[in-house]
Each structure stands twice: as C-alpha cells, then as structure tokens.
User: Fold this.
Amino acid sequence: MFRALVELGRDLEARGKLPSPGFYYYKEPIKWVVHLWPDRIYLESTESEYPRPFSGRTSGIQPHLLVDEAGYALAVARNKGGTDKHAAEKHESFRSLVKDFLRYDGLSDPDLREAVRWLETALGEGRAREGSRFDEVLSKDWVSFVPEAGPLRGRHLFEHPEAKAFWLKELKNRSSPGEKKEKRQVRGECAVCGKEGLLVGRIPVGVKLVGNTPLHSINADAFTSFMSGSGAFKRGHIGLCFECGDTASRAFNYLSDSPQHRRDLVRDSAKRDSLSNQIALFWLKAPSPISVGDRVLDLTEMISNFGTVLSERRNDGNGAPPATTSQLLALLELPWKPTEAALRLDDFAFYLAVVSPNVGRIALREWIEVSLGDLKERLRKFLEGAKIVAYDGTSVFPASIGGMLDALGSKNPNLTRALLRTAYTGFYPPGELHVTAAQRLGGLFPNEDALRERNRKSRERLWDDRWPQALAAAIKLGLYYDSEEGERMTELNEECGNPAYLCGCLLAVLEEAQQIATYVKARRRLETTIVNRFYGGASSAPKSTFGKLMSLAAVAHLPDAGKDINVRLECIATALQKADGFPKTLNLEEQADFALGFYHQRAKFRFDRNSEKPEGGAK
Assistant:
C-alpha cells in the first residue's frame, strides 16, 4: 500500500495537485508579508494561500524556515486570548534556524544568501516593530518574507529551491528515531523506494481520517523485534525514508479529503474513532484516458464510476449528478480500450484500501490491487449478481456494497472484506450473506408499518425504504452469483420450481388476496395482515402453516380477490404439487429462497397496484 501511495503522491506532485515533500497546505492563510530591502522593511497585510513548511509541531517549539507564525518570525506576544509567554523563545529558535541556513553547504545562490542576510539584519535590529501596522499583528498570524530588490524581487524566500532542500534536510533530522536530544541517525534501505539513506522514527504529517493520527508508527516494544531493551519503540525506526513517508501521508490525505476517492462503508455515529468504522479509499493508475464504446472517459470520471460499487453518492445539486450502479453496469458491458494504441487494459491498475481509525495509528482492514482488465469483468459479474427489482417494482438496478452493509446493520469487518473481495477480486460471496439477509428481511417484512411509524417518532433508525431492495440483492448475490439461474432471478420468476421460492410467492399472494377482499368489503386496506402473524412460521415450517392459511383464504378472501389473484395462486399450487407439495421444514438456505420469492411477488403486486386498478376496485 505504501508503494502505491508514494507513486500516487509523486504523480499528484507532477500534476500540481500536491506540494513537494516537507510542505503542506494550512487552514490559516499568510496574513502578513515583510518586504525586505538592504536598509529597511515594509509590513503589508495580505490573505495568501501557499503550501508552507510543515513539521507536525504541536506544543513544542519548532521553527519553520523563512515563514512562520508571528510569534516565531517577529517575536509577537499578543494574541486574541492573552499573551504568548514563549514568544521570545520561539523567535530565538526562528533566528537560529535562519543562521543554520546561512551555514548550509547547499546555499549556493548568492542572491538568496544576500536576501536572507537582509532578513537576519532586520530581525536583529527589530525593524518590524517600527512599522505603522505592527500593533495589528497577532502571535498566531502567519508571516512571510519577500525581497524587493535584486533578482529575487517579489518572491517568497521560503519557496526558493535551495530553501526547500535545506528544510527537507532539517525535517529528516527532526524525524530521526529517538526523543528530543536523544535522537540518533539510522541509515538503511527504505522499504518503499529501496534507496539507502536516513530512516525516520516518525512521519510529521498526520493523516486525516477521523482525527489526526500517524499513517504508520511504533508505539510499543512488541513492534520492535529488531531492537532489544525496554522503551525500544521510542528509539526504533519505521523502515521508511522521510520522502516516502511524507509523500504517502500527503497522498492519503488527498484521497481522504476527496468525495471521489472516499466512501464510508460502515459508520458508527456514536463513536467516530471506533474500529467499527470502515472507510474505503480508492484510486486508479491510468496512463491515458479510456475509450468506452463511442465515449472517452478521463481519470476523474472513471474513478467516480468505480466508487459507485462501494456506495452511491447522493445528488447534492452541484454539478453533474453522480453515476448510478445501473450506469456503471451499462459501461462495463461495452468494449473498453486505452486511447493510446501501445497500452493495454492490464497497464492500468485499481487500488482499494479499507481502513479504520485506531488508537495512535490507522488500521488497514483490506488492501486490493487489480488490473483494469480483470476489474472490468469482476465488477460486471458482481453488479449482475446484485441486480434486482426495486421494492416498488418500478425499476431494476444493482445494490451497492455500502447499501447492503447498511441494510444488514452489520459492522463485521470480515463481511465487508468478503463483499469487497467478491466485487474486486472475483471471490465467491461469503456463505453467511444470504442467510443473514434473509433473517434481517424476516424481521422487517412482518413489522414494516410499525417500524415506519416508530421511525418517524424515534431518533433511532429502524426503517429505510432502500433496505428491502438491498437485502433482497444480498440474498440473490449469495444464492446465485455467477450462475445462469441468477439471470432469471432479477424479477419475479414465474417459471421457478424451487419449493421454498414458491412458498414465499404464495404468502405474498395470500396477503394480496386478503388486502383486496378487505378493500372490496370495507373500502380500506389492513395495517395488520397474515404476514405480520405468519411470516415466521411460513418461512420455517410451510406444511403446517400454509394448511391453515389456504383454508382461511378459500373462505374469507379468494372469492372477492378477483380472477388474477386466483389464477396466480392456482399456478403456484400446481408448481408446488409437481414438487411433492409443501416442504415440512425449510433450512436456512431455503429460507433465503423463501424471502426472495416473497420479495419478488410483493414487488410485482406493488408495481401492478401503482400502474392500474386491480380487479375489485382496490388501488
């Protein structure tokens, strides 16, 4: 993963989307610019956004080179909340770093050296305090220095390549293993780039997932088998050079901050920093655009489409609407080829990391790396397997992984990983998927109206209109993934002879007969039907349960239910008779088929009810 993140970071740097190593964007702008001449300065207010030197400092005193907060750069002690008692100490450390830079062997530009000497003189003589606006400067305001004479006129000193090189060297020393004055330099081979050089003990840039934590760290002796003695983790290195560690962390943050590259698969709203939270970060290595049918997709559009499998983004009204799973499936069924003739789809790669916040570090749950050629076929198979009719019967579309996990109410990382492997690596779905989904549906179907009502009155999320379709998709995926029969189970399959599936259809037919008969007699629909009372029994012991239900329906409901209902019931009864009648019991897998049959038949009735008035006048 680190190697892929470093490659991504370098590509982003080359495209101007990430600053160079050792530099970072801050929330606070540069608020003051000190313009330098050999004999004077001028203090000007500004609001400038630049990537600046970054050391990851928190409470300790660590100056930045040639640009910093005013407490460091100008010894300003004033602050909104009072006084910075360490301003003098901070300023002394800032000046000391400037002097170190002047002694730096890599400082070969005479114009830069001269400008930095102007700065050193101005700081030594306190010229900034003579400025008319100095009293407006606060300790936390960022200050930069710009020469106004010579070849470097108008340029921020901290942006000079030689200043950047010195800052990188300084950061390597600060990031060495050990604590404060006990730091020691460790040389070795970087685990990512393979270059011989200094290895770091920490990465200054924390990654933004929930809070701000290191991407990689050692915080216990158990992780330092290569060293002996107590407290070894405080002296140990993490096997990376500074450039690779810093670049990987900044690339991680780029992904985490981008809605196109991040999806929250499982979210624990009560505890955002819990391991139960599972977040997917994904990206694409694409040497060229891709030709799909008669269209050309660029990198941004491609990665946005691939993220749809993880979870569909809501349309916020800004820009083009996000892609749907149906649109992605349609794209996957078209021929793909790189726009550059010398490239193949196997030259493109897709990367996916599933991570969770953890104490002091990030926990990597899953790492997937796959070529675009393999990914195309695997995603197509997954989406075909997860494609099913909507609960109201009006459309057919695949459910996303996030949608299924949300409907299942599962925070099990193993289930998440298994679904990701099915989608991206072609593994078969987890064996418990359809069983768990059927059990969940068995709790929703009999209590739908009550759950909807409680959902309106409670802050607890007890019902979501998207759940039934997502659960039915999980059942279909688990039972019929990559099979010919699966293609016929997207909607109601009236040719299916599976007894469990037929029993599920039959319960939905008997419920519809009850509703129509009630409407014919009383001009109302029931809130409590046979499903509320008998779903559990019908799905586990059909033979004993359906005997009672059929007798009740024959007398009370079927005479008023209309021709279509009676014909459908007769077809199901005939098919069950061919299959040796009602099964005595259904095992867990058969109960999943039962749930799928019930869902399909109910969706068909809902579609019919919304499109026309059924016989008997009921809507």
Summary: The chain has four domains: 23-169, 175-256, 262-314+321-487, 499-611. The radius of gyration is 33 Å. Confidence is low (pLDDT under 50) at residues 219-235, 614-619.
